[in-house]
Specification:
Four copies of one chain form a homotetramer.
Chain A (H helix, E strand, L loop, with lengths): L6 H11 L9 E7 L2 E6 L6 E2 L3 E2 L1 H19 L18 E9 L8 E10 L3 E10 L5 E10 L10
Antiparallel strand pairs in A: 1-2, 2-6, 3-4, 5-8, 6-7, 7-8
Chain lengths: ~160, ~160, ~160, ~160
């Protein structure tokens, strides 16, 4: 029986703990899988930059959140697998993120496919590919490193 | 006579071309110097993340804008040095940004000190140090690469 | 008719232009494909570091050369597709490389699978996955940016 | 009384534990200071690449070793401050390194000035500036992250 967190559980976690990022439900987890997650950035005008392209910080945030969602999904523990905040992953902190901007995205939703490369005792490394919804060419690629509390830690009760 | 762009000219350029980022004047250029610029992120609650810290994407955006401001200031050309949009720098595009998050910033303004390492014919590389206003320890460090049109280009009339 | 460079052509190019790196044929291109190349680092004791692991700089070099090989293969031009030095790719210069070390490789050959993400007029971005020969878990992942002369350039005669 | 490791102690440590990198004493620590170290890459022909420039992997290795030297110097512990291998720093492992190549160095010695940005309980982050001996313009800039055993660990006896 898999206890991987569902997209719904992670979206509920974001709504509770990151209210600032989703006044209009900008960022939505759509899928979780083995060491992976897919997240959508719902387009809105405030994401635009000169030239009619999506802003770099919006892409950074999408990549970072998609990786965080993949970590949350994978590191679920505790009695109730639906609750993200019972996860060590909930305490993950971004320590490094490197992003390459490849093409200018047109106005519209963006999708990030995040995949974890390594889940260590204290460091998790992953990558995220970003593309326009319905397109295949990547608009950006990011790799990120996250620090997590050690397993069996008492930190999270 | 120096024709480096003033902070005022760059802030006016941002207000005109990046209205999305400064509804409440979040990002303000405070100084420009030789291959350098200082930028302030004015604190607001929506910058917060769980634990009462400033969000990573906000720090990414501050670093990116500070580097862009340093490029604008340095690449001014044309008759009127006050006008940033006469600059090749106005067409600079971020191609890579690598950021290390070092410490969690408390709620409050953040300062970014950006410095350009190299101004090539087509690529500009720089770094930005971020710290809390009034503090000395860095909360983040970023290096970024920007693609610019070649000198003597007719692209910008 | 494909004019992609063969592994043999690229290995001959390396032997001629990079004699320093292959006194014992350390680095060997094994495959080239669409926007991709596979390269082998032939193990030798001087690659070791304390703890019996392959050195970081060796992995950096393998990733960098594999990406360069993929660029050479893709940017072949001219009458004789076998000749790498007729390619714009031969003038490619690494401008940025970011590498994450994921696991310590045991002594033995390493394989790098390089894949190009974007081939622009002046910048090429790609990634390389490194793993031990015969294994599947990655030991390192790198992303690199390369500057190339513009198409139609007369630089390379 | 400072117990920071001396350059001599670190060079002795390298000679003992990294014999592969210094058959001809290629890499030499010249200074150590507060959270910093200076290291020299002694030029030899095998460092060359086409165009008469120092190879990228050589610069990567110099940056990585200089940061490692700064960590060794800073994390000295135990009865005998001269002995690097009594240090937690001796067990530091590079987890990420990002390097920007800025200018092509002429044949000749290279200097790396490494400075640590953060010394955490488990992660150390630093930067290294590389320049030709006697010159001021940087030829490369790197940021690196290192994983170290926690303080008070019994791992190193």
């Amino acid at each position: 029986m898999s206890t991987r967190l569902t997209p719904e559980a992670i979206n509920a976690f974001f709504a509770e703990h990151f209210p600032q990022i989703s006044p209009g439900r900008d960022f939505v987890v759509e899928e979780t899988g083995p060491m992976s997650a897919r997240m959508r950035l719902v387009y809105s005008e405030r994401r635009l930059r000169p030239g009619g392209t999506i802003s770099g910080p919006s892409m950074f945030e999408l990549a970072d959140l998609a990786l965080y969602a993949a970590i949350l999904a994978e590191l679920r523990v505790g009695d109730d697998p639906a609750k993200a905040n019972h996860s060590r992953g909930a305490l993950a902190v971004t320590t490094n993120l490197n992003i390459n901007f490849l093409r200018k995205p047109e106005p519209g939703d963006l999708i990030a496919d995040a995949r974890l490369m390594k889940i260590g005792a204290r460091l998790i490394v992953g990558e995220a590919w970003l593309h326009a919804d319905g397109a295949t060419d990547a608009v950006a690629h990011a790799t990120g490193t996250y620090s997590v509390p050690p397993p069996k830690s008492d930190l999270i009760g």
